[in-house]
Write a structure and sequence with these properties.
alpha/beta; Aspartate Aminotransferase, domain 2; seven-stranded mixed β-sheet; four-stranded antiparallel β-sheet; 11 strands
Amino acid sequence: MKDALRSELIVTAHWVADQLTRSAKRRVAKEPDPEHRIALRRLPIPEQPAEPGSLLPFVERTLAPYPGGAGHPAGFASPGTGSTGTRALAGLLRAALDDDHETLPDLAQGVVRSLAGLAGLQNTTGRLTASPTAAHLLCLATARDRQPDRDLVLYRSTEADPSIDEAARLAGIRRIRPVPVDRDRRLDPEALRLAIKRDQAVGLRPFCVVSTIGTPATGAIDPLPEITALCRAFKLWQHADGSLGGFGGLVPELAPLYRGIDEVDSLTVDPHRALGGPPGCAAALSATTLPTLGSAGERALELWATLRLHGRIGAAELVAERQDLGHQLRDLIANHPGLVLHSVGPLPIACFGFPDEQGDPSTRSAFHEAVACRIRQRGRSRLSTVDLDGHTVLRACIGSRETTKRELDLLLDEVLAAGRELETAIKLLPSNR
């Protein structure tokens, strides 16, 4: 059995190496047919023990043919950077260590301190968690426990990630106030002040404001100093969601927007999205001791390997490279006569679409959804859609470090080709003849 396992480990290591070195050549994304999804959901446990050598064929046959696009140079749907060789090596090495290895919790705390330093926080500790939602939960529960448990109110912008509300409800917080945003889609401090005053006037207890450092739709960064000043004036806890843009302060271009980040009471970061760390490993950071929620220490070695690979300089270069590509993408869109750039935020995200020549926003929204679907089916590139002011537009964000100008051109070629195909199909409908 041991010899068979050793042989299978070698074969599997070669297969993993092949997959990692051909990422740019493989299909960006492929959706399985419904029957395949149903078969996986109903997959039975075999009656007899399976041989180690049967696992790789199972992965090759049922999982590997259906990538989602994260980490591919032409994948623009999500900011995740995909798997890396360093993470694969660290994962293999982690498998050789005991489940309750004595030093992994210490390594996890060292990783947390390193993440806090990259984010611009001083004298901060925290916890590794399985997701940003879990990290938010730890921070919001800590804020809640510092207040009398009655009529508590949490504030966040209308552009905040849905995980904030999910974590708040898990923490038992029922009153969540969406605060309007300004023209740059940042939380409006004056609207926040008025909302706090209104709630105080009716006997409610404002206790926490969530700032967003990189909104999921456009990458907007809330004005931290102004929000901090309000939190101090009203004695509120300030939590910041840095899941998308928590490390942007590493580059001079973005640093002014991060002024005051070291004054927040807690911060969530997601090194998977920002730095190519392992999925399922976010961090809750705070100078206040946070409670424990399970353990993500088993991912500490993979995360440390990623940070070690980059170093502080490499992490800053990665953020800067994405920023540059984001500028290039927005310039390509803005200068194309057949496309419209809808929103420009500080992070490398572009929200855009086709011009609405017929004056029917609902039709154009459906058209954008169909364009994204057609691109996904073609499998050469991938982007997502997002709701902006009640209208659906296309959204592309820079994720992979392997993305170049060539992939940006490919993305726009795919968008325009899908648009032409759909326009032709619409003209051929009987109602349009």
